Amino acid sequence: MFKLSLIVIALSITTAINGIVTFVSWKRRRTRYGLYFALGMTGVTLWTFAAALDYASVPLYLKILFSKIEAVGYHSAFALFAVFSIHYAGNKHWLERKWLRALLILIPVANILLTLTNELHGWVWSGYIPSNDGIYIFEYGPAFDWIVIDSYSLIVFIFLNTWTAYRKGSDFTRRQARLLMFALLFPIAINLLYRLGAGGIRGVDWTSITFSISSLMFAYALYGIRLLDIVPIARDKIINNLTDPMLVLDLQNRIVDINHWAAKALGISPKNLIGADLSKVIPATRALLDQPPEREVKDEFSIGSVDARYFDILLSPVWDERQTLLGRVILARDITERKQNELRLIQLTQAVEQSPVSVVITDPDGHITYVNPMFLSLTGFTFEEVRGKTPRIIKSDRMAPEIYGELWKAIKSGKPWRGELLNKKKNGELYWELEVISPVFDNGGNIINFIAVKEDVTARKEAETRLLEANRQLEERLKDIEGLQVILREQAIRDPLTGLHNRHYLNEALKHEIPRAEREGYPICFILMDLDGFKRINDTYGHAAGDIVIQYFANLLKKQTRAGDIVCRYGGEEFLLVLPNTPVDYAFQIAERLRRDFENTEIEYAGFHVKAMTSCGISEFPSHGATEEKALAAADMALYAAKELGRNRVVIWTEISAR
After folding, report:
1. pTM for the whole structure
2. Rounded Cα–Cα distance for residues 384 and 426 (Å)
3. N or C: which terminus of the chain carries fewer CB neighbours within 10 A?
């Protein structure tokens, strides 16, 4: 049933190599595209394993079975390698296109199904011719050329993505991409020779056998260049998890990777930054980049002039496991807010900073042994009054006891303490101090004194309170302005007399409604209404009565229309109803009900009972007009016809177009 041969031995060795590379790739996967590479290598291993069994088997039915398994392996491998190449080239956004995802799934699935069901149609293999050494020559069916074209198209696609990574990447990326391209080209060249009939033994496809060389190249990429290791670590564990700006540079100071925050700080798209010289993008970094690349450097620089942003940066070298310098990494922390706060503090506390600060020295038990003149001037005490006393003499009893407990715990353990305390002068006046209290050690490491350097920050604290209050008031004013903007916008699209939308709103609304109706295939009805005899009402009762009639009719429209309908005052005594997704017969019912209700209404004004009527013209988009303008014109003609026929009636455009 099975027969050993040199081809089988070669394929077994190839499968073993592929299996090792597959195992390593699964262990080394760290990102989504690392998973695709591992899955692709799994498909290759399945392919070469099935090929070994194919050449080893004697019965034809086994050869056909293993050939089908081969198809499952290489079709899935090519598709998965294609997805891997998209990620590797930095084109992950391509996969957001539904048609591309569909092609990458449906084409290999279709090819596999054609192969698995070949007995039903013979489109892949139409016949099998036996030859020497138990090898069968498979005659190709009409679908085989499609499968070959599809496979080579995927290969070209993979190669072009890898070439893109080679062309745009750093030196390190070029080494990876170059190796991948060589690994891809070698078996393809062998397969082309086989397709052209120059492959040696007829019926023997050396492609799967020579894939061992490609797998060795993949293995070197995994172990030597760390294809699936270095980049994912840099991207996932460092760059993407940082909220501070970060850039990765090659040895020519070109940007090879950048996170979102760095690109945002520079105001440039990451795509436009990759490959750019950092010293040209940020001239302020030139002196920093001129430092020896193997040194770790800390510095500070700013971006911009008017709205400058300040950054603390750390420039560190990147080494591989052989201590070869690969490039450098820049970590930046935005300190703009701190800089601005420092500036405000300087401005707010200038008077304090121009004077000497208070200094108090105590013994290890906290008894005062020395104070400077500023302390005496500030507190109002004399030196005789504080000597030998503890700093409790200026304690205000307004601070939480826990703060003093933490203070003593820190300085007794040999650590400095820094904080703000609310203290009390001799006259009872309260004031704030920023204090730094540090222990002083003798040569034996024993604490012999405590030194407190204290700065009066009362002005700053009061200023901070005022600043918070000013910010609160500013926020309230901004909310008021936003509310006014909403009111003004609403007034701009409303008719002041009726509260209905005006023609400006109508034009904006139809820009969305017409395309939506065309896209979803539903009609829109236009009902154009005009109040009959409105001039007579104005002449008889006055314009105030006319306004009341218009307002009454507008309220009637509001009550008898749906939430999604558009109700507008079209001009003067004309009104327009736009009814989305409404057939013309239902629009007629709505218009007739409005006409009837309005006709049966008496409006009281100044002791008079005013009666009014309305005429309506209806058109339907797109059957009565293929554009907004034509549909409105049809409704206008229908309204004119209603007037001509005696007023107080509803006319559909089709009724007059049929005349």
Report:
1. 0.40
2. 13
3. C
